[in-house]
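Below is a filled-in request sheet from our internal design queue. Each sheet records the structural input a requester submitted and the sequence that came back. We keep these sheets so that new team members can see what a complete request looks like end to end.

REQUESTER: design group, bay 2
PRIORITY: normal
MODE: inverse folding
CHAIN LENGTH: 122
BACKBONE (tokenized):
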């Protein structure tokens, strides 16, 4: 199983980015996918999750209304649109797959991508 996260970069506060998580080696539509992030010196935290067919989504309070998650089960890819970015959104963003459904705990996820760095300048 491979999860390949991409799309990170350097952006000014108020800007936008779209992250992608491309999956291979698994039956993609059978997995809920989540994004987590980890800033230097901080614990990894839940950002957003989407159900197997995209009918349900969940967001951390800190990103609700600014970030949007979606998936394309034909392309085996999940997207995270980051709008109205703030310096506190600066972190490495990781995607993860969970065979048993959406969850906010990182311990629930079986497979992880390598992370993509998002840096927001003030």
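RETURNED SEQUENCE:
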């Amino acid at each position: 199983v491979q999860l390949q996260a991409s799309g990170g970069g350097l952006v000014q506060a108020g800007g936008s980015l779209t992250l992608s998580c491309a999956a291979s080696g698994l039956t993609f539509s059978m997995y809920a996918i989540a994004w987590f992030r980890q800033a230097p010196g901080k614990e990894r935290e839940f950002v957003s999750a989407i159900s197997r067919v995209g009918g349900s989504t969940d967001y951390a309070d800190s990103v609700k209304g600014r970030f949007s998650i979606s998936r394309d089960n034909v392309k085996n890819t999940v997207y995270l649109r980051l709008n109205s970015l703030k310096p506190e959104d600066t972190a490495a963003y990781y995607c993860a797959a969970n065979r048993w459904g959406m969850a906010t705990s990182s311990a629930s996820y079986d497979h992880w991508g390598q992370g993509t760095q998002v840096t927001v300048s003030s």
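SHEET NOTES:
- The chain is about 0% helix and 50% strand.
- The CA atoms of residues 89 and 115 lie 14 Å apart.
FILED BY: M.R.
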